[in-house]
Amino acid sequence: MSEDSTLITGPLYAARKKVYPQATHGTYRKIKWGLLIFCLAVYYLLPFVRWDRGPGLPNQAVLVDLPHRRFYFFFIQLWPQEVYFFTGLLVLAALTLFLMNALAGRIWCGYLCWQTVWTDLFYAVERWVEGDRRDRIMKDKKGWTFQHIREVGLKHFLWLMIAWWTGGVGSVFRRRANAGAPARDLPGAVLRLPLDRHSHGHDIHFRRPYARAGVLYMCPWPRIQAALTDEWALNVTYKVDRGEPRMSVKKSEAAHLKGLAAGDCIDCNQCVAVCPTGTDIRKGLQLGCVQCGLCIDACDNVMKEIGRPTRLIGYDTDINMARRREGKPPVYRFIRARTILYAAVMAIVGSVMLYALLNRTTALIAAQHNRNPLFVTLSDGHVRNDMTVHLSNKGGTPRTFALTVLGLDQARLSAVGVEPAADGRLLVEVEPDRVRDLRVSITAPGGAAKTDNTPITVVATDVANGEVLKVSEHFFAPK
Ligand code: SF4
What we know:
Elements: H1 27-45, E1 62-65, E2 70-73, E3 76-78, H2 84-104, H3 107-112, H4 114-130, H5 133-142, H6 146-172, E4 174-175, H7 186-191, H8 207-215, H9 221-228, E5 235-238, H10 240-243, H11 249-257, H12 270-273, H13 294-305, E6 313-316, H14 318-325, H15 337-358, E7 363-369, E8 376-377, E9 383-393, E10 399-406, E11 412-415, E12 426-430, E13 434-444, E14 453-462, E15 468-476
Parallel strand pairs: 1-4
Antiparallel strand pairs: 1-2, 2-3, 5-6, 7-9, 8-9, 9-13, 10-12, 10-14, 11-13, 14-15
């Protein structure tokens, strides 16, 4: 390797540093509690919501049914052929993140990311069991006393129980071949130990939530977000122009008396103490800052106590930081090229998805021509092509389709196991929520096909409502 090689020789990530986040109160803490309760309520309660889809179909409102390859979301039922809806949803989710980022930084990371939500819950449990920051630091300094061991053991037990319940609920959202017990059995499954990940029909992944919320501290998103933010985006910011030079209340009073400059920051470190990642926001925008706003609350509380204006730390833009230094008033520009672009693409993707959803058919047809042989010449001179036709009924009631073929004069259709009706039509019944695979033969007189490869259309018409399904195919014949 040459000396000027760009090979990274240092560590790829920062070593774990134990943080002791302190409890705080204020506007952002209230917002975070509200969102935490809302997100956890949606996650934990959704599997218990029922939705009647008719006989033979699952009545769980939200369910990924892996054995039957279906996704149920209240009145929507998606089939594997409709995977583009998921693609659309992923695109929308990514654009929403980009838009959030362009408007107000890491809203997702600070308030809604599931790792943030569960970590917040785990910290609350930690504080409840071991006490607030000062108590925890003291106990760690004292070492492993009996009380400390008991408390740490209890904390990890409670974390494991939350992770167990979280993993259990996650498993109820999807049904597997060896699982799929109804959601109402979950409380029983959770109570029945030992901790077996395939316990009682529920494939419970409890290690992941425990590790993510209780142990892990890394995330790749900050690096992406650093590339997405710009000088107009609101970010949690320490207002340097107002805070510096930082000094104690006493020293700042003395400085003022002498006519010297003194900032509003009293260097109390409260903003660092409450930070869940131990970031010092006064050092500027950093990858470690999830922008949860708790430092804003902590600093506001300090400012109120010492009788100074709040929002020394607050949501602000780089542009306004520069303008304040120049003595200019702040300006905010939420409507700009990148936010318009994100919103426009979101509107287009959302409209396309909505249109596709409202106009999706409740039945599908697909055909697969036999390759070997492509055609058979019968002893009477007729030519026969064989293919498999798949008819899907996505509805909740049985449906009957009349099969016909277009594009080839005098062509006759037959299907294995289907007798023609009295009027000569080939009627095929498909059970609700099922796919019927038919071995279909199309036979035509020798000279009917003008070329050796004639485009044809296989048509299935619902005899009850007239809905027409079409699939293009080819009729092969000797040259
Ligand atoms: S909480 Fe406010 S006053 Fe205290 S160190 Fe942080 S920025 Fe300075």
